[in-house]
Amino acid sequence: MEQRIITTSDRPDLAAQSDEALLADWPEFILHDRCAPELMGRAWQLFPQFDVRLLEDGAVTAGGWAVPLRWSGEAGELPDGYDGALASALAGQHAGEAPDTLCVMAVAVDPGRQRAGLAGQVITALRDRAAEAGLRRVVVPVRPTLKSRYPLTPMADFARWARPDGLHIDPWIRTHQRLGAGILGPAPRSMIVTGTVAEWQDWTGMAFPQTGTYVVPGALDLVEMDAERDQGSYVETNLWMRHA
Ligand SMILES: CC(C)(COP(=O)(O)OP(=O)(O)OC[C@H]1O[C@@H](n2cnc3c(N)ncnc32)[C@H](O)[C@@H]1OP(=O)(O)O)[C@@H](O)C(=O)NCCC(=O)NCCS
């Protein structure tokens, strides 16, 4: 099988196919982060070299994107998470600041090609590009795939759940660990999704008949529903990891 890494700017014709393959496995509500869509569009335009796709025999089977930003190297000075990193990268670019860190925003693999190490190839391609661009550090606000089964557990506790072999119980954290990454700590307000009760019902296929706190499939934290204000809010905690 022929494998090749390209950027979306090399092959804009692949955008539709790429979206179909790579968005299939995300819970719908996470695509409604209010701050993200406009900023994401700007980031893809400004940093196309960090928006990569893996082609296998000409078809998109995996992809990932990242943004360059400036970071002191102190865990306490990281942005709040995904939204914060995006805002920081765009503000830094606007201010003419020289970035020193690549922040990997998302990686996705076609459901039919998962468990074959493709995510690792995408991360490696992004790390290589960071090195080529002179960015000394690589960080990721990781969205652990298993965390949605433990929405009541704080991320700080989940972060410590290791197997006897020392690797994490979460498969997505393990992929980063096998590539040499270490855990820095929770990214407390990584993504924020708000919507009306009807929108949340549409996104999740669940009914929310009264004000309260709900467990929602695919959500890493609980969702707060306010029937009187007709608003549902979700604040997702991710986990900062740093690659060697
Ligand atoms: C998370 C994701 C990127 C991993 O990609 P991948 O190429 O399958 O990853 P790997 O082949 O390195 O597999 C890593 C581990 O995850 C496990 N895994 C992969 N896909 C899985 C699935 N659908 N269900 C359960 N486990 C899975 C693998 O078995 C492996 O576990 P191991 O450590 O015991 O060997 C992919 O599952 C995906 O696209 N998910 C949807 C999008 C997403 O959640 N992205 C991460 C947030 S940015």
Poorly predicted spans:
none
CATH architecture grouping: 3-Layer(aba) Sandwich
- Span of the ends, CA to CA: 30 Å
CATH topology: Aminopeptidase
In one word, what is the shape? Answer: globular
Order of helices and strands: EHHEEHEHEHHEHEEE
**Number of strand segments:** 9
State the fourth-level CATH superfamily: Gcn5-related N-acetyltransferase (GNAT)
Radius of gyration: 18 Å
Describe the biggest sheet?
Answer: 9 strands, mixed
Strand proportion: 25-35%
What are the bound molecules? Answer: coenzyme A
Number of domains: 1
Number of helices: 7
Question: What is the typical, i.e. mean, pLDDT?
Answer: 95
Class based on secondary structure composition and strand pairing: alpha+beta
Using the coordinates above, name the CATH class: Alpha Beta
Percent in helix = 25-40%
Description:
The chain is an alpha+beta fold. The protein has one domain: Gcn5-related N-acetyltransferase (GNAT) (Aminopeptidase), CATH 3.40.630.30. It is built from seven helices and nine strands. Strands 1, 2, 3, 4, 5, 6, 7, 8 and 9 form a nine-stranded mixed β-sheet that branches. 36% of the residues are buried. The mean pLDDT is 95. The structure holds coenzyme A (COA). Coenzyme A binds at residues 25-26, 106-109, 114-120, 143, 145, 171-172, 174-175. The site of coenzyme A has 19 residues, from strand 4, helix 4 and helix 6. It comes from Trebonia kvetii. InterPro entries: Acyl_CoA_acyltransferase, GNAT_dom.
